[in-house]
Amino acid sequence: MTIKEAITQAQKKVVSPKPQELNHVAVIMDGNRRWAKQHKKSANLGHQQGAEALQNTVKYCLEKEIKWLTVYAFSIENWQRNKLEVDGLMELLYQFLKNKHQVLMEHGVRLNVIGDQSLIPQKQKEELDKVIEKTKNNEKLTLTLALSYGGRDELLRVVQKIASDVESQALSTQAINNQVLESYLDTAGMPDPDLLIRTSGEKRLSNFLLWQLSYAELYFTDVFWPDFDEVEFQKAIDCYYSRERRFGRRLDEVESAQK
Length: 259
Description:
6 strands
């Protein structure tokens, strides 16, 4: 994608003509290991149950006609975990891609990925590329996996790319604004999340989508991710619709903009 095309995509992003419309859900899938410990199971089994919860959440989004689902699958900091667990997570990713790509096709789900892909092992990267290519024309739901992702790392890479383009004169400093910056993000062309859900009781962003979550509604639940079912998902949605989204404006300004 050229710089001009990316900027055009960013300019098409709508802040929200209907502030309460739920179009994009982001999820920090937290609590797999604590779930496993609670049930006296291995951490790997906890992650497997977490993968099942993700599949179910994709189904819930399809049923509720939510168009975008972005999940924090593996942070860039997770590479520092012990090798056995990291290898297990990478194998789980590979098996998910290998065994579920047909299900994604059947349900019209497009797979997308954000993060530093240079760190993903070759076997998993090749399978990712295959599934992304196969599902690229699906339109019912875009499932974005944040793999080897960190918000600060993303912004650092953006600064480096912009600096390089300014140096090569492909971009002028006077042209840099919010829309141009967004065109360099991993999420270029995607709408910002309307709702962030984090499970397991933790109440922080943990370096996830730091730019994109600026005006998202935040929902925290004590439920561990493997236990996050349709009832819990509906609670998050109900909470979202109980709020007023203002995007830094007064309520009367929001109502005027809607009209």
